Amino acid sequence: MNNDAFLMEDDYQELKVTFYPPLFLQRRIWVLDVLRAENVTKVLDVGCGEGQLLTVLSQPAPWLAPPPPGFLPPPLEPPDASDTIPPSPTYNDEIPNLHMTHVMGLDISINDLQFAIQGTAPPQDEVNLEEGSDQYRSHYTNVGLRWENLEAKIWKGGLEVINEDFLDIECIVSTEVIEHLPPEIFPAFAPVLLGIYHPRLFLITTPSYTFNARFTAPEAPPSARQGYPDPTGRTDRIFRHSDHKFEWTTGEFDAWCRDVAAEWGYAVDVSSIGHAQEVDEWGRDAELGGATSVAVFRRLNLEDREKKARAVVQTLGLEGKSHELLTKHEHLAHEQSQHPQSLKEICLGVRATMEGFRETILRVEELWFERDIAVMCGGWIEVLVRSVEDCEFLALKRDGDGAKNKRSMWNVELLGGITDSKEVWPAEGESSLDYIPMDWIPREDESESEGGWNGSTDMEGDISWNGSEDDDEVEPPHSSEVAGNDWGDKGDMEECGNISGRVWDGGWKQAACEDNTIPHSSGSSTTGWDGDESDDTT
């Protein structure tokens, strides 16, 4: 009998359930998608923990939002009537960027908040490694140019304490927080966040207890489910985390959302995210939904909402320390932001960059992430597109490989090819050996150098510099002659043939008329996104 019972328990082991991407990333993607769709610029993360979301929100957008109507001059050539895409449209609007101006985080854990402080801090300037000192060269400071100011604040305190700085914030995010609230704090959650602060948007996520059935077979005994018994003793449910005070079914979450939305003047959309990679052999996937319940609250008009909420919170009699502002970070925009140079100067800069790379075709975004090009455009990628459209020796290719509507695949072509030809290949009849010094010994220079190689190479051998010996990088100054909309001003440029040329040497100077080229600047900048790699809760 005991053997049969043992076999039954063994037969009903917990089922394998995996998520791709990991569930914590799916939650973050959901939040970011809503923020993008709603064009949110100010966010408060309640229960921010180590600040993983805030760190992402603190990264700069690769370019500014489109310039105001009428800022760009009309195109030189009338658009083709059959073309459904107008000249210089909003670039890459199929994946809109976030343009954050204010991010705030609140949590009770000082240890977690130290990571949030670091993650939202402005990047530090690189310093050279000096022998005998504790200075080092950082490999992670080149996070890209910033075109908009950003203010980041990190607060320590409980959500039951009212913080007047949070009133009327544009959006509040609460991910995997509400299920951790003690019973005495829970009643203050909705009145404080939706009543007193009354954001335009409120985003919330919490584990779905309904989904937990996915971890075992339908007829499995309760002992087959691994996890944590309800610490309150109110139910016999098994939770996913030891600190969860409850886990709602989809029906319970829906009912709570609709009740508080009606009470505090909001419309709400309830759904779920996080479906298992494995197909449930009992066909329960649609019935159980996703592992995480989510909801978007949108503010409606409601008279005396804040006054009513303050009265409710006062009756709760909760006491707590005032929130402590741990840090305030200021991220400053580049000084050339919204101050582009003339279209002709940008056109010349693009040609110089392509000739420096010895490329006749480059993607628009490859050009954009050359630092000098982005600075010349003042942070507006639409200005780059228009300069190419109006340039006589450049062509914008929008229909290659059937990608006309995929603006991230647009290319720029250098008409006429590379003009500053160089003898980079042996002439006919010559051997490549003619280009090797007679006294050259392979790797001799590297092995005998005192300082060794200070650069780094990737798997393909491309050299990746993380700075230069001269850290005082000089930016092309904004020309007052071409400020605002005065794109056609040529008064400060001497004509030489059909175009004018300048060289960069700490400042714009006239180029020689023989080649009309601008030397390529080796300084480049790209940005990427690096999310956190772990999460304590599912």
UniProtKB/TrEMBL annotation:
| Region of interest: Disordered | 67-92, 444-538
Q: Name one GO cellular component term.
A: nucleus
The reaction(s) annotated as catalysed by this protein in its Swiss-Prot or TrEMBL entry are:
small RNA 3'-end nucleotide + S-adenosyl-L-methionine = small RNA 3'-end 2'-O-methylnucleotide + S-adenosyl-L-homocysteine + H(+)
EC id: 2.1.1.386
Any one GO molecular function term: metal ion binding
Instruction: Give residue spans, biased composition: Pro residues.
Output: 67-78
UniProt keywords, alphabetically:
Magnesium, Metal-binding, Methyltransferase, RNA-binding, RNA-mediated gene silencing, S-adenosyl-L-methionine, Transferase
Q: Which BP terms does GO give this entry?
A: RNA methylation; siRNA processing
Cofactor(s) essential for the protein:
Mg(2+)
Q: In which family does this protein belong, per the annotation?
A: Belongs to the methyltransferase superfamily. HEN1 family.
Q: What is this protein called?
A: Small RNA 2'-O-methyltransferase
What organism is the protein native to? Answer: Hypsizygus marmoreus (White beech mushroom)
